[in-house]
């Protein structure tokens, strides 16, 4: 099951879907906002708040985090998969329709079809790590009681 494009099936799985996420009492406009804020939230909370509130657009949240990359937590590479899993858990458990959609995929492989990202997606050659898809598959197993 491939996903990535707005107005196509399973776009809700992506961080760019308009499903707000609440974390520690604060609402983030999208999963992407929370994921980007996780880079700063424990060490530079004012930057995390800036990312949360600067714009409702997820691509802007990503751009702001990238501009402030020098300020992000030093262990980000070690914790980014764990933080992605946490964001996905929060997003899906706060939106029942997403749980139903995810569980309805059965045991199908979930692939973030990205022509630019070989870590989170399948990359330009279709052979990327697809860590985002794998994180969704782990969440699906958990939600199915596995």
Automatic annotation (TrEMBL):
Lineage top rank: taxon? Eukaryota
Q: Which CDD domains match?
A: NADAR (cd15457)
Residue ranges occupied by any NADAR domain in the UniProt entry = 6-143
Gene3D superfamilies, A to Z: YbiA-like (1.10.357.40)
* Xref: InterPro entries: NADAR, YbiA-like_sf
Q: Which Pfam families match?
A: NADAR
Q: What is this protein called?
A: NADAR domain-containing protein
Q: Which organism is it from?
A: Lentinula lateritia
* Biological classification of the source: Eukaryota, Fungi, Dikarya, Basidiomycota, Agaricomycotina
């Amino acid at each position: 099951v491939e996903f990535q494009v707005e107005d196509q099936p399973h776009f809700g799985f992506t961080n760019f879907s308009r499903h707000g996420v609440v974390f520690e009492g604060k609402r983030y406009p999208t999963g992407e906002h929370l994921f980007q804020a996780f880079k700063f939230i424990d060490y530079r909370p004012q930057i995390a708040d800036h990312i949360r509130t600067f714009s409702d657009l997820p691509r802007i949240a990503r751009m702001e985090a990238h501009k402030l990359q020098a300020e992000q937590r030093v262990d980000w590479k070690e914790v980014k998969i764990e933080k992605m899993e946490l964001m996905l858990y929060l997003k899906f458990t706060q939106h029942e329709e997403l749980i139903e959609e995810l569980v309805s995929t059965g045991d199908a492989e979930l692939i973030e079809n990205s022509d630019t990202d070989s870590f989170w997606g399948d990359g330009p050659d279709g052979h990327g790590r697809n860590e985002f898809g794998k994180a969704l598959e782990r969440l699906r197993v958990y939600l199915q009681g596995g």
